[in-house]
């Protein structure tokens, strides 16, 4: 499959929690090998869209296709070979990290198989090393920090050998150092493994710096889809977030950078903001 081809297609999706909230008429083509961010204010429909893609809630209308095959026609094992999911809340369980990561091989197990093969261990080791958690493999999850558990969850997801990695706010609860480290890892995985990544991300500056494409949602619909340069304009941000911002370009990456404007500064420059 070429990099400019669609790997995941959402066609006229309507989903949600009747009668309270819906996402409506969602049409998205996720490009193979891309790193795509889902952005939007609280209540915009990001989580509903994410849960619809993961299958934790079912669409009321429309189709989702992976490589032109309808997902509803796939069984759980087949779907798990295409899509791996890392949720926002990583369990802090009394389980050894290595065993936790090996759970990612479940979609490839034969019926009644209870022992992992040498190949399973080899693949798990590859991704524990790639995510830099190999040295913690004999520790239990409840002995690890939140950031280390996040890496363990990513290693387990990669051990599924998926084509698409879904991440729900992977940088939440992390300080700026760990946010950058994690997104650098995701960017590296995206490039080295030709892995298609789709993630919810709140920080617009991180979204602009790391993502190839952005899906901006608002009030249950898609407001705009495009590159960060296309989407992160001050007009679109102010329309959707109802917040005054200034957008400029990062001089090193040429990506959009967003600056907030405090109420105090707005008052001091009120003539400018009236224009």
What does this entry look like structurally?
It is a single chain. This protein has 275 residues and is of the alpha/beta class. It has a single domain, classed as 3-Layer(aba) Sandwich (Rossmann fold). It has helices at 46-54, 76-82, 97-102, 118-130, 146-159, 176-192, 204-210, 228-231, 234-241, 263-268, 270-274, and strands at 6-17, 21-31, 35-39, 61-66, 69-70, 83-86, 164-168, 196-200, 213-218, 221-226, 245-249, 256-260.
Which short descriptors sum up this protein?
275 residues; alpha/beta; globular
Instruction: Report the CATH C-level class.
Output: Alpha Beta
The neighbouring-strand order within the major sheet is 6-7-8-3-9-10
In oligomeric terms, what are we looking at? Answer: single chain
N/C terminus separation: 49 Å
CATH topology: the name is Rossmann fold
By DSSP, the count of extended strands is 12
N-to-C SSE string, H for helix and E for strand: EEEHEEHEHHHEHEHEEHHEEHH
CATH architecture field: 3-Layer(aba) Sandwich
Report the total helices.
11
What sort of overall outline do the alpha carbons produce when their principal axes are compared?
globular
Mind summarizing the main beta sheet?
A: 6 strands, mixed
Give the name of the CATH superfamily: P-loop containing nucleotide triphosphate hydrolases
Mean pLDDT: 91
Uncertain stretches: none
């Amino acid at each position: 499959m070429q990099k400019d081809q669609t790997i995941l297609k959402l066609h006229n999706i309507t989903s949600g929690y009747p009668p309270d909230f819906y996402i409506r008429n969602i049409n998205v083509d996720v490009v193979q090998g891309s790193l795509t961010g889902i952005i939007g204010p609280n209540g915009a429909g990001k989580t509903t869209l994410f849960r619809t893609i993961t299958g934790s809630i079912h669409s009321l209308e429309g189709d989702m296709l992976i490589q032109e095959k309808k997902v509803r026609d796939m069984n759980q094992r087949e779907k798990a070979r295409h899509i791996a999911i890392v949720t926002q809340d990583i369990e802090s369980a009394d389980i050894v990290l290595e065993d936790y990561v090996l759970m990612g091989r479940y979609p490839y197990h034969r019926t009644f198989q209870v022992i992992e093969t040498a190949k399973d261990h080899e693949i798990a080791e590859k991704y524990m090393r790639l995510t830099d958690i190999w040295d913690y493999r004999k520790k239990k999850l409840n002995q690890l920090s939140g950031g280390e558990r996040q890496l363990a969850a990513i290693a387990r997801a990669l051990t599924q050998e998926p084509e698409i990695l879904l991440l729900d706010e992977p940088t939440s609860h992390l300080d700026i150092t760990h946010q950058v480290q994690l997104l650098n890892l995701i960017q590296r995985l995206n490039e080295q493994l030709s892995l298609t990544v789709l993630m919810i991300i709140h920080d617009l500056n991180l979204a602009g710096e790391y993502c190839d494409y952005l899906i901006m949602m608002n009030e249950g619909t898609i407001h705009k889809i495009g590159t960060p340069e296309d989407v992160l304009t001050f007009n679109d941000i102010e329309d959707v977030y109802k917040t005054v911002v200034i957008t400029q370009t990062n001089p090193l990456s040429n990506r959009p950078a967003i600056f907030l404007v405090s109420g105090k500064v707005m008052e001091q420059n009120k003539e400018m903001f009236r224009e």
